[in-house]
Amino acid sequence: MASVKGFMALAGAAAVGAAWLRVRPPRPLPIVPLPRALSQRPADGKKRVVVLGAGFAGLAFAHALQDELHGIPMEDVERVIIDRNNYHLFTPLLYQVATCGVGPWHIVEPVRRIVQPEGWGFWEGAAQSIDFEQRTLHLDNGSIPYDELVIATGSTTNFFGNDEIRQHVLPLKGVREGVAIRDTVIAALERASHTDDPEERQRALRFVIVGGGATGVETACALADLCENVVPSDYPTLSRAEVHVVVIESAGKLLEHMAEPMPRLAQQAMERKHIEVCYNRRADHVTARTVHLSDGTTLEAETIIWTAGVRASDFAHDLPLEKGKGDAILVDRFLRVREHPEVYAIGDNAHVDDPAFHAQVPLLAQSAIQMGECAAANVASDVRGGPRAPFVYRELGNSIALGRFDGATQVAGYTLGGLLGWAGWRVIHLVRITMFRKRLEVLLDWSLGWADHEDIADLRLTAQDSPAPPRPRRRAPAASRQADATGTSTAP
Description:
- This protein is an alpha/beta fold.
- It has helices at about 1-25, 55-70, 95-100, 110-115, 165-170, 175-195, 200-205, 215-235, 260-270, 315-320, 365-385, 420-430, 435-450, 480-485, and strands at about 45-50, 75-85, 85-90, 110, 120-125, 125-130, 135-140, 140-145, 150, 155, 170, 205-210, 245-250, 275-280, 285, 290-295, 300, 305, 310, 330, 335, 340-345, 350, 400, 405-410, 415.
- The strands form 8 sheets. The protein has a 6-stranded mixed sheet with strand order 5-2-1-9-22-21.
- Helix 8 links the parallel strand 12 (about 205-210) and strand 13 (about 245-250).
- It is elongated.
- It starts with a helix and ends in a 5-residue tail after the last helix.
- About 45% of the residues are buried.
- Mean pLDDT is about 85; it is low at about 1-10, about 15-35 and about 460-490.
């Protein structure tokens, strides 16, 4: 039966790929090459628009500006996008890297191949500071003068100032962190399968996830499914009943930022998968093998995943600008930095501060994309001269995966649960992946995982390549894990 499923999955994916290759138009070449001397200002009165960050907000801005500048010769506006990585990370599927659902290389897209066909140049570099008076962005490998600057550096993991937590937990913000969690989970199963110590076995098979938001819920459900699928077949000395997945949530319900019935559906999924949820409790004290909760409860676990929140990127935090919630840069209704109207901030590192703006903008990809599109329209107005448009957030709905063949999708006031919600979630996320090749790779991963079992090969990458632990009993140094938290902070 498994072989039949596998053949059908491969045949279907091959047919989709073949059809796409047949009808796919030729890929356009870049129209405006990136000037070599970006350290000089553009000549002949040209303007230069610089975007810092290739996450959802930055790429949405790049795509929208192409349309907003219609009628203006492309040669008149130099456009440069900068990121410290040369890839865009599709963060909604990062938890599936951590739980063996997709390969890490399938959710990263080369930025050059996304933006160059639309006339954008790309510079790989890490931002260091901004000279607002001279309108110059300083990087670790050069400086770029700008006429309009868009800050879209996204967010990083929020440890709420607790260095002890930072040292002992596994955050889930960058692709290397996803691989680190994947390897830690697999190493825990391997260790539990051959130990004779009941306490060590129990500790290895308890997986604690701190944070009951969308990422925490999806990670917990996928982790429970992973153990449900691979433990009976690959680890015959273990039983699924020995595996304990625990979610720590400081609020009184899951998915607090989502409207009902999404939290209720998530709770029901947790119950079906035998996931323990600790409500109204915080993780106050964490060591390498224990989590101490605010009510005095102590949980022993070797795998502690942190999904309790994010804050504005370190770069945005360090800028000498007025800040709002989560260290985000205060912007007006047009998404301009108050002190410098030629600078825009969008995505997770922007906080709209306006008495007339009552809607709370969630830290989600859809809000980052909408901010990018609004900022693009306003930058185009700055270039051609004209009125700016205020940012208005439009709630497009929510979608969340609750494990295999289970999910919840909320659109236009209607909520689909179960299999339909799961199918809706998959369609939404496949469509949002920019490159068709990556869509096909993710689809193949999903199809093969359904037809057979998840790939549980432990990559055991070295500490220099990844924060994954090089040995089963050791964790990588905290500094190694943190490097990726800032390195991939451009995606919301």
